[in-house]
Amino acid sequence: MNMLSVPIESLTHVVGWTLLHFCWQGALVAILMSCVLPLLHGRSSQVRYLVACSALVLMAVLPMITCIHLVMVGQSHTGELFGSTLQLPSVSSRGGVSFSEPLLDRITYTLDRFLPLLLFLWGTGVLFVFGRLGLGLVVAHRIKSAASFPLPQELQANFYRLARRLSITRPVRLMNSAIVQVPTLIGWFRPVVLIPLGCLSGLSMAQIEAILAHELAHIRRHDYLFSVLQSIVEALLFYHPAVWWVSKTIRQERENCCDDIAVEVSGNALIYARALSLLEEHRSTLPAFTLGVTGGNLTMRIKRLLGLQKGPALTQPIAFGVLTLLIAVAAVSVGTMVRAQSTVPTQSVHTQSAAASGAASNPTTDSSPISQSASPNASTAPTITSQYQNWLDQDVRWNITPAERAAFLSLGSDPERDHFIEQFWLRRDPAGAPADTYRTEHYRRIAYANQHFAATIPGWETDRGRIYILYGQPFSIDSHPALNSSDESHETWSYKSVPGLGENIELKFVDACKCGNYQLQPTPSVP
């Protein structure tokens, strides 16, 4: 299924639910990373940097996987991914029998209604952050262009010698700048290291070389490019605090990696730590896309260089235990989901009715909750009797959720099935209503459908029967019988409210076969 073929309304649901799903996905990735990092205490900064980068890459990939999955399965309304579907009648405060939805369904339906507003707010935030990103790049480019002051030949010679020592083959320049106040790297394709006027006064040559080696380390590691890509991910997922925490960790470990290279070049961590302390006196606010030698938390960097950094707040045994627990929970969840998917059929929309014998319907692809239904062809337990199979495939075919269906199929005895059925109806009784209110009305609707909508198949199996069973009597019916053999009979049902679709919904049914079997047609409200 191509993203370009998805209707705008459905695409809104897909993107909106993708962003909502990332709330728990991003939190889970951050929790995993917070458990892994304490286990790496004492390891090289490069290892910790790769772990943090992997977490951010995973955060960027998960929404894409979720979005593709939702498009491929046609779930533009993704209530099913929360373990439920929005196919039960809603509560009505007016006359007649009312129905109640499970709490999770009501929450999902409410979120679904506010998806356009959430997407607007998200889009506004993305534009703002990207605007800030573009402004930072422009300012960095102007700072780079304004640098034209000559540097001493001795400093230039040491700089290029260090570049060769660090195996940097790209063209790189060292220039003086009256704008920056600490040594700063700008650019990736043609990088420039800017040295502020008078910044290096009072530093020994060994300290100067260590500082230059730090900037050259950024160049060798392509940190400027990765910083820009990192900021793009931040802009798209700006609403999640976990993204900013992971991104902050990446920047901190990136500076630590370059510090390690600078110490390796200078051969003395104390010399480099003193140089950092002196440079802090010249520090000022720099644009977002300048990499400076005093970037990150300078105090923590100096303590790390001198071996004074405290251990992680989360001890390694605790971190290992939490990580093991998370992996176990994830494994059980994935196993449960796979097992449920093996027994729960694909949701259908615009069901094409089968023969009168009750054969399986042949659904076409759609994402409207009005057309979602559980197929009766799911694999069943070998001990299930026809009585319970008929209840599952006929009585509650249109209003049982995939999760409930899977749970019912997993039961091993008839008493358990009887208890499940009893609870099934009780859960759907409106608050304060007499017992069996929902069940009584449900079977009345089935009887009405069989009496008024039967054609080549029983009335409850037809599209009109399904909609009537789910949503009750429409507010109005506009019927147009065929006037001649070339015409098609059709009806338009109007509902004031349909859960999952909104207000003032019109559903059109057409008797294309001229056999009395009216089939639900796509409308502007039903993609």
Structure notes:
With 527 residues, this protein is of the alpha+beta class. It has helices at 8-39, 45-72, 103-113, 115-146, 153-165, 205-220, 223-236, 241-266, 269-280, 298-305, 316-343, 386-395, 402-409, 414-428, 437-452, 463-471, and strands at residues 173-177, 184-186, 192-196, 291-292, 349-352, 362-364, 476-480, 489-498, 502-511, 519-521. The model is unreliable at 75-101 and 336-382 (pLDDT under 50). 35% of the residues are buried. It has 3 domains: 3-126 and 313-339, no CATH class; 134-245 and 261-296, no CATH class; 344-521, no CATH class. The two termini are 15 Å apart.
Strand proportion, as a percent range, falls in 5-15%
What is the element string, with H for helices and E for strands? HHHHHEEEHHHHEHHEEHHHHHEEEE
Distance between the termini: 15 Å
Q: What average pLDDT do the residues reach?
A: 75
The helix/strand class is alpha+beta
What number of structural domains do the residues give? 3
Topology:
Blueprint: H1 8-39, H2 45-72, H3 103-113, H4 115-146, H5 153-165, E1 173-177, E2 184-186, E3 192-196, H6 205-220, H7 223-236, H8 241-266, H9 269-280, E4 291-292, H10 298-305, H11 316-343, E5 349-352, E6 362-364, H12 386-395, H13 402-409, H14 414-428, H15 437-452, H16 463-471, E7 476-480, E8 489-498, E9 502-511, E10 519-521
Parallel strand pairs: 1-3
Antiparallel strand pairs: 2-3, 2-4, 5-6, 7-8, 8-9, 9-10
Helix pairs in contact: 1-2, 1-4, 1-8, 1-11, 2-8, 4-7, 5-6, 6-8, 6-9, 7-8, 9-10, 15-16
